[in-house]
């Protein structure tokens, strides 16, 4: 279906349509909006669609007659996807692990339907840019034959630190997690003490409420490795810290 819809479109050679997919929180939505307008300033002829979860879309546009309808502001289209928690995720009683499972099950189907509808309207997506913790977006982009880009909204040094943690340095970091002054030498970085590292990297207790994020970061890097093995090219990562 994806390839069929793609070949049916008769677009000019320089046609570009960026689909930006982001988490339903202000700390992710604001950088995504900044990126959308930055793309329009650099490529005025491009189309940009920003998609976040239905719950966040409803908070952003509370006066819409139809809560989940598409909204366009200053050339950016906003189309929500379902993450399985359309009324919002409630940490006080919703399970975080179940949320990740439901997100991976529900969101790809919802986003696939959005991509199909856009293609049917003559606006096929040509590039997918996704925020953190959407490792399955790599597979979705591959299914549609379009490039995907990870939008990293933290400092690049943090990305490098996580990368080295999952590629050869996990054991040494965990073995010195209680020695805050222990100094690490990670490739390409100046010496860092244990206390300088992101706190997620020194969590060992399975009962810690933030332990789940280690697995999410691991999934992210594994998806990038999978993309490299399938496409034969290096994954693309866009660093965009708003100052």
From TrEMBL:
Keywords: Membrane, Transmembrane, Transmembrane helix. Coiled coil: none annotated. The chain crosses the membrane at residues 133-153. GO terms for molecular function: quercetin 3-O-glucosyltransferase activity; quercetin 7-O-glucosyltransferase activity. The keyword Membrane applies. Belongs to the UDP-glycosyltransferase family. This is Glycosyltransferase. It comes from Rhynchospora pubera. The lineage of its organism: Eukaryota, Viridiplantae, Streptophyta, Embryophyta, Tracheophyta.
């Amino acid at each position: 279906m994806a390839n069929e819809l793609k070949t049916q479109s008769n677009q000019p050679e320089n046609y570009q349509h960026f689909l930006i997919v982001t988490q339903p929180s202000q700390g992710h939505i604001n950088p995504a909006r900044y990126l959308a307008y930055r793309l329009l300033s650099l490529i005025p002829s491009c189309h940009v669609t920003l998609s976040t979860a239905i719950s966040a879309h409803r908070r952003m546009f509370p006066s819409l007659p139809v809560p989940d309808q598409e909204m366009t502001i200053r050339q950016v289209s906003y189309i929500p996807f379902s993450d399985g928690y359309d009324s919002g995720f409630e940490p006080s009683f919703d399970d975080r692990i179940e949320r990740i499972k439901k997100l991976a099950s529900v969101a790809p189907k919802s986003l696939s339907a959005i991509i199909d509808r856009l293609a049917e309207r003559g606006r096929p997506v040509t590039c997918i840019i996704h925020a953190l913790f959407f490792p399955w977006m790599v597979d979705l982009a591959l299914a549609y034959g379009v490039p995907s880009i990870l939008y990293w909204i933290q400092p690049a040094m943090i990305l490098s630190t996580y990368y080295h943690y999952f590629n050869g340095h996990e054991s040494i970091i965990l073995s010195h997690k209680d020695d805050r002054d222990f100094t690490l030498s990670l490739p390409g970085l100046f010496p860092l003490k244990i206390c300088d590292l992101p706190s997620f990297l020194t969590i060992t207790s399975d009962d810690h409420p933030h332990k789940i994020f280690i697995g999410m970061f691991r999934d992210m890097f594994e998806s990038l490795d999978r993309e490299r093995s399938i496409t034969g090219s290096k994954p693309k990562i866009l660093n965009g810290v708003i100052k």
